[in-house]
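Re: the request from the purification team.
They wanted to know what the chain is likely to look like in 3D before they choose a buffer screen. I agreed to run a prediction and write the result into the notebook, where they can find it.
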Amino acid sequence: MGDRYRLVSIEDLPSHLILEILTSGRLSAADLVCLELTSRMFGGSHAMYPHKFRSLADFAAFQLCSSHVIFVGMSLNAQKELFDRCNGNWKRVLRFLQSVVQSSAMVETSAGNMQVTTGRYHTLLISNSSVYSCGSSLCGVLGHGPGTTQCVEFTRLSFASSAPVVQVSASQNHAAFVLQSGEVFTCGDNSSFCCGHKDTSRPIFRPRLVEALKEVPCKQVAAGLNFTVFLTKQGHVYSCGTNTHGQLGHVVNNGALYSFGSGSNFCLGHGEQHNEFQPRIVQTFRRKGIHVVRVSAGDEHAVALDSSGYVYTWGKGYCGALGHGDEIDKTLPELLSSLKSQAAIQVCARKRKTFVLVDGGSVYGCGWKGFGSLGFGGISDNVMRPRILDSLRGLCVSQISTGLYHTVVVTHKGRLFGFGDNERAQLGHGTLRECPEPTEIFIQEIEDEAGLLSEGM
């Protein structure tokens, strides 16, 4: 009996079983690199896979890429271009794909899973399934009840459900939360029905379950200006709120980009300023065979990211928000040539400014520098082309979100940095002091819990 349970080294396991473990989907590209460097089993050559792969870890990375949701939807030409952009290294391809997905949702950090999203004068944060908010609001968007109109520090929200929160979206005056159970909660100004509740006579001061979706599990939500869009686990889309112009929207479907809503400032990307009341495909990307994976809409411009890490901008060029070195409006999506040498993993646009997060964790910004929301400190002029934020060098940023006049980033170690306007406490520093350059944000409640945990160990 004793031999039946004898301990064996992982090197004694059959190669095909090890490959099954490596491709289970639980490992990151960094994990594969670590295994490759520390064990001959993962770094050596084996007869079980083609010679074009340099190691078992490399073959595992290829297998994970081949089943990745973004990679599967790409054309063969797009797949080859991405592989070439990553210098023929499948682990780098995998890192790019995983980073693109995480930067727009929950990011895995050494301090746990996190997501940050910024509204007009407030910020929401998920940290290990708990939600925190800070900033100012008279309409309940902070989610702490009618007696709370300002939180100078990040403060935890409570929900009438024990399920963990997995995604959050913030807009000007309302917020929406998706739980692991698929339930959706909203809070804030509901006068336009954007919170999905029948009662429009008063704000929703605490997160409330959207009853209309009680039997419809959701996986993602997006809060816009006076409207909300819900994506169900079955792939269906629901919406609620104001529909004055068909509502500004950009939708990515299997690499194709569709837009709808107000066409002012050419921000729909169709080369004209007509309003669109139904999703219309953006032909520029379709004609060129460009596979779009992410898009972000500012107030008057838009920015898109393709499957090779290239960035495109269009719309109103005021203050250099488009990053092309001028203030000329772009009627159609145009490649951001100054970042061609970088593989971008996230794009983020808001009022007259654009941020691009690239593979490796560096952040570039361009546009209007008012209130320090670009994070360049003493620069007096607007930034006409994407410029790296030197103050964030070496921190390896994993996610960025920008509000009206403030910006917050999450690093791969789970540290938070904020910069810009803080007059409404939207940075959560515990003061109302403006931050022209990135300043670390400490959340006392999380610090206290970490301290208790370390003491218990």
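For the purification team: The first strand starts at residue 107 and ends at 109.
Please add any questions underneath this entry.
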